[in-house]
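User: My collaborator sent over this chain with a note saying "see what the structure looks like." That's all I know about it. Can you take a look?
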Amino acid sequence: MDELTANLVQELRTHKTKYIVQGTLFIVLGVLAAALPVATALSAELLIGIVLLLSGVFQFVLTLRSKMHWWSLLSAVLSILVGFLMIWKPLAGLLAVVTLLALFMTLEGLLELLLAFEFRPVRNWSWMLFSGIITLIMAVVLWVGFPAFDVLYLGWIIAINLILYGLSLMMLIWKVAS
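Assistant: Without extra context I'll predict from the sequence alone. Here is the result:
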């Protein structure tokens, strides 16, 4: 076993409980998201709207108090407007979220593939590879099916992604960390 593999195995053994808890949490949240796909999709959209609205208000106040540049004020106003629109018109906001999620999942899938190849010397590394491939496939489904898949499939895609990532963490430490 080379030094990199030994370091990876030691990391997994040292933090076994953390990986088990994290994997279990991802799986439980994924099952919940799968059971309630429309609620998952709308909740994600509304949460983003609330975060944008609140962060915009805070940025607006801080920009006025600190006399920062005008573009910071414009950024705050834009955040407030987009957040308000996402809360007021959640289905229209959902279309924007689907586009962002498709972009995110494309990047996440690529990063999971890179991570899988980093864990290649470790037993069960192929689960991380599998998760990355499925994440990329789901991103393609969003890109191709947009906007037809917006509400229902968005919830399921979030669920599948959570479950697979949780399973990949659990399988990664299955034999290595014992």
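A starting point for your reply to your collaborator: Residues 18-173 form one domain.
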